[in-house]
Specification:
7 helices; 2 domains; five-stranded parallel sheet; binds 6-[(cyclopentylmethyl)amino]pyridine-3-carboxamide; Trp Operon Repressor, Chain A; alpha/beta; two-stranded antiparallel ribbon; 9 strands
Length: 221
Amino acid sequence: MRIDILTLFPEMFSALSESILGRAQKDGKIDVRVVNIRDYTQDKHLKCDDYPFGGGAGMVMMPQPIGSAIEALDPEHKARRIYMSPKGETLHQQKVFQLLEYEHLILLCGHYEGVDQRVIDLFIDEKISIGDYVLTGGELPAMVLTDCVSRYVDGVISASSLVDESFSDNLLEYPQYTRPQEYKGLTVPEVLRSGNHAKIDEWRREQSLALTAKRRPDLLK
Ligand code: 4GN
């Protein structure tokens, strides 16, 4: 899968080169391209934002640099073009699986007061929000979406790691433990050290159900 991220702050995206996503990129499983919108401006001073028509606080990102960038990256509109916005549909696991059907995603990150509405009207297929709060830019949401989608791309994470995780089966994941057997007076539940895999599965299932009922009864429907 290819993910192009359009931003005025490309240096924020170093996080995507670490750990599992860094490995996945080196292995060619995902192709994440961070694109500086400023590289596409036709303004001689490289300007990419301007004052809002009608007045008000802050700056609005100009349509030309963003439009030129999207046209250059996706001339035939084969990609799914997404604007990270608090006005969008809230991201959830089901949405992640829908996005995995696309071979190419373009994630547009707004900053300041956002982008000129005509960019959204002309170039954007959908808006996605990562939750009901406002951030200084769409960069962190784009990283969240990239991480979330990438871990389901074949070979990025072992399939077995994806089986019991939270939200699969509409349940929260059971608690995990590692060594030592006792830490600050708290011990690992005996059943996990019993070697009885049927019992362990049963215990984990009960833990998942109890945790979900307590913390997220809405998931149980
Ligand atoms: C997305 C963008 C939050 C989200 C953002 C979110 C940048 N904040 N909940 N900030 O996914 C106004 C215009 C805020 C750009 C936008």
